[in-house]
Design goal:
The chain is mainly β and 146 residues long. It contains 1 helix and 10 strands; from the N terminus they run H-E-E-E-E-E-E-E-E-E-E. Strands 1, 2, 3, 4, 5, 6, 7, 8, 9 and 10 form a 10-stranded mixed beta sheet that branches. Strand 9 and strand 10 (134-141) form a beta hairpin. The longest helix has 20 residues, at 3-22. The protein is globular.
Length: 146
């Protein structure tokens, strides 16, 4: 009788350790999408990502059923003109937070599949390198203070 519980423990403990490690450890807050006129198909999403771990974590892409494509961009001022520079990924350093905010890094949400207005909620799936994906909900707002 005692061999069965030992066998179960021998099989179960490594699985539990793996599943605990595989959970997303990044947290996100202040998640919002800027509302745009109905004729505009490209919107921007903002948030703050927190990495409490000892390792840098890389966000490699974002998916959403509301958009055909999502890219990372950084706004830069060059000769008094705001330009957007594409980024392939975003690295959230260990023990820090990373802001995606107006005037800096942000997500460009392209190919809007349906009209979004203030108060609507949109599912975003953050896809990371080496850790599980994280589903979050962004609220459509006119500004961060809404």
């Amino acid at each position: 009788m005692k061999k069965i519980p030992l066998l179960i423990n021998a099989l179960l403990i490594p699985f539990l350790a793996w599943s605990a490690h595989a959970q997303p450890i990044i947290t996100a807050e202040k998640i919002w999408i800027r509302e745009a006129p109905p004729t505009i198909d490209v919107l921007a999403a903002y948030m703050t990502l927190h990495n409490p771990t000892d390792q840098d974590i890389t966000l490699i892409c974002v998916k959403s059923p509301a958009f055909t494509d999502i890219m990372f961009h950084k706004t830069e001022i060059v000769n008094d003109i705001a330009k957007m520079r594409h980024a392939d990924e975003i690295i959230i350093p260990a023990h820090t937070s990373f802001d995606l905010a107006p005037g800096g890094f942000h997500m460009m949400l392209m190919g809007k599949k349906y009209q979004l207005k203030k108060g609507d909620e949109v599912e975003l799936t953050l896809i990371f390198k080496k850790i599980n994906n994280k589903k979050i909900i962004a609220t459509v707002k006119k500004s961060i203070t809404d």
